[in-house]
Design a protein that fits this description.
The protein is α/β, with parallel strands linked by helices. Helix content is about 40%, strand content about 10%. Strand 1 and strand 2 form a beta hairpin. The longest helix is centred in the middle third of the chain and has 14 residues.
Length: about 300
């Protein structure tokens, strides 16, 4: 599938588990984007991705980069509070600032400073974000909790993905080459390479588990990275507002956010232990050892 210029413009694929259950994705370069029901009402990915690459960046843009279900909503909300200097929740959902799901016109209409977010690789982000050395925040979460969260996200009632397979079938698909969204190990090792190769790009790596264990300390580090001055009392209020229970209630009770309720589940660390069987855990550990052997990421609480 090509554009008139002859340049690749991507294609739609079906990620299929061993029982034939499918999830539709749009593959573009190094990325696969979930083709959610209603997504094409927002934008045409064949047209959008090249336009996104050429989108004008602003010097004060901030971009949250993360694999799917790594805590993007959580970190994005914290960043909007820090940049706006208020502990009030953002009026809209983070999807309104998501690079792959919003048109360039809508992204351009956002007021500064923009806290953008994405599950894309560096090669598909706006080139000017790199040229202008905009600040990136990369979120890391242990893969076992990630896969549990992805399964519940994609099979939940009301989810646009409507995945019908079992958790065991989903794990097998997660470890395969064609998966729902980015192949996880390729995405993580790809970002490690991207960041190492572009050593002058500002970046702050935050671990989901550290943010859960010591939110005050991690928020203070984010504020320092963003050159934002805030009092301890302000951070304490943020910690309270951004606890998972309060954040879920505060965001999904808004009429314009109710459609995104399935995005919030438990937000726990170590919930994978209630899902994985011993056999599944052994296979998954072998997969991680093989695929992430040279990774410098510290995947916490996977054992």
């Amino acid at each position: 599938m090509t554009q008139e210029t002859g340049k690749p413009c991507g294609e739609f694929l079906e990620a299929r588990d061993k029982s034939g259950n499918t999830i539709t994705v749009f593959q573009y370069g190094e990325d696969t984007i979930p083709a959610m029901k209603g997504l094409l009402d927002i934008m045409n990915p064949q047209q959008h991705m090249p336009q996104l690459r050429e989108m004008e960046a602003r010097d004060d843009d901030i971009v949250v980069c993360a694999p799917v279900k790594a805590g993007t909503h959580w970190v994005w909300e914290i960043l909007t509070m820090l940049t706006r200097g208020t502990t009030e929740y953002a009026t809209g959902p983070k999807e309104d600032t998501m690079l792959e799901f919003r048109s360039v016109d809508k992204l351009n209409a956002l007021t500064s400073p923009r806290v953008l977010n994405t599950h894309l690789r560096l090669s598909n982000l706006p080139k000017q974000l790199i040229e202008k050395k905009c600040k990136l925040i990369f979120v890391v979460r242990n893969p076992k909790d990630t896969v549990v969260s992805m399964y519940n996200h994609m099979s939940a009632k009301g989810s646009a993905f409507a995945y019908k397979g079992s958790f065991d079938e989903f794990i097998s698909m997660f470890m395969s080459e064609v998966v729902p969204h980015n192949q996880w190990t390729r995405y993580m090792t790809g970002w490690e390479h991207d960041l190492a190769f572009n050593s002058d790009i500002p970046r702050h790596i935050i671990y989901y588990e550290d943010l859960k264990q010591n939110p005050f300390h991690e928020i203070k580090k984010l504020a320092s990275y963003l050159n934002v001055t805030c009092t301890d009392a302000f951070v304490d209020d943020m910690v309270e507002k951004c606890s998972f229970v309060n954040l879920k209630e505060g965001k999904t009770n808004r009429p314009d956010n109710k459609r995104w309720q399935f995005m919030y589940r438990k937000g726990e660390v170590g919930d994978w232990k209630t899902w994985f069987t011993v056999a599944q855990n052994e296979v998954f550990d072998e997969y991680l050892t093989k695929e992430m052997e040279h990774s410098k990421f510290n995947f916490k609480y996977t054992i």
